[in-house]
Specification:
- This is PAS domain-containing protein.
- Keywords: Activator, DNA-binding, Hydroxylation, Nucleus, Repeat, Transcription, Transcription regulation, Ubl conjugation.
- It comes from Callosobruchus maculatus (Southern cowpea weevil).
- With about 260 residues, the chain is of the alpha+beta class.
- It has two domains: about 5-145, PAS domain (Beta-Lactamase, 2-Layer Sandwich); about 150-260, Beta-Lactamase (2-Layer Sandwich).
- About 25% of the residues lie in helices and about 35% in strands.
- The chain has eight helices and eleven strands.
- The protein has helices spanning about 5-25, 45, 50-55, 60, 70-75, 180-185, 190, 205-220, and strands spanning about 25-30, 35-40, 85-95, 110-130, 130-145, 160-165, 175, 220-225, 225-230, 235-245, 255-260.
- The strands form two sheets. Strands 6, 7, 8, 9, 10 and 11 form a six-stranded antiparallel β-sheet that branches. It has a five-stranded antiparallel β-sheet with strand order 2-1-5-4-3.
- It is globular.
- The chain starts with 6 loop residues before the first helix and ends with a strand.
Length: about 260
């Protein structure tokens, strides 16, 4: 028979469940060779692939080939200084879940953009051979993997302090959430239509914005770091943007939908 969980074990299990729900993602640990050392059990909720099927496998077998060089750069940990720097990467991982929530065979899996943010960790490993004992340092990448919600899956009305914008492929505004934009940023929709999104952020945020949108057009989705969005009457509002490339029925990209979160 299966032994019953003790009270402390039940509490730990409940605490872990609450933690994972609050993260809105899953925990992932990669060795510097790319092996999955650990994944939280809820990974199947986001990828449709179970924790057991992924553990011990290599991330390069489950990620898009065009992302492999970026992954290697993140998990390499070449210098001591790099271990103290937060790392962020958008990885396209295989996903067996369809848009309707059904599960398909791994061979039919599509790629889903997962935003992984975390740190490199180090731990000493002791090896004993004959009369010699050697100590080596092993490293791993500990991160939280979070999907970027597709605009079609976001329930209306949008949460407070959130506004929706739509852009052409050259990132010019073709739609803006009228009421919120007017109340918070002072813009009427006609103030923005036909204007480029690149005209409305602080110059010091330009490199980060360009990098984020480069990721968008390469991978289909991105999330910016917080940046300063220019208000009509002067000054800036701090914003984080989640952008998704929208495709037509023949899978040709035709527009970008951005969900913008005001964080002030």
């Amino acid at each position: 028979s299966v032994p019953a969980l003790g009270k402390s074990e039940k509490c730990e299990s409940q605490d872990e469940s609450i933690l994972l729900k609050s993260l809105e993602g899953f925990i992932i640990v990669l060795s510097n060779d790319g092996d999955f050392i650990y994944l939280s059990e809820n990974v199947s909720t986001y990828l449709g692939i179970s924790q057991i099927d992924l553990m011990g496998q290599n991330v390069f077998e489950f990620s898009h080939p065009c992302d492999h060089d970026e992954i290697r750069d993140v998990i390499s940990g070449k210098s001591q200084e790099e271990f103290n720097i937060p790392r962020s990467i958008f990885i396209r991982l295989k996903c067996t879940l369809t848009n309707k929530g059904r599960s398909v065979n791994l061979k039919s899996a599509t790629y889903k953009v997962i935003h992984c943010t975390g740190h490199m960790l180090q731990s000493p490993s002791i090896k004993k051979e004959a009369d010699e004992t050697t100590t080596t340092v092993q490293s791993c990448f500990l991160a939280v993997g979070q999907p970027i919600p597709h605009p079609s899956n976001i329930e209306a009305p949008l949460p407070k302090q959130t506004f929706l914008t739509k852009h052409s492929l050259d990132m010019k505004f073709i739609h803006a959430d009228d009421e919120f934009m007017k109340n918070i940023l002072g813009y009427e929709q006609n103030d923005l239509i036909g204007k480029s999104v690149y005209e409305y952020h602080h110059a010091m945020d330009s490199d980060a914005i360009l990098a984020a949108y480069k990721c968008l057009f390469a991978k289909g989705q991105c999330e910016t770091n917080r940046y300063r969005f220019l208000a009509k009457r002067g000054g800036y509002i701090w914003v984080v943007t989640q952008a998704t490339l929208i495709h037509d029925k023949i899978h040709k990209p035709h527009s970008v939908v951005s969900v913008n979160y005001v964080i002030r």
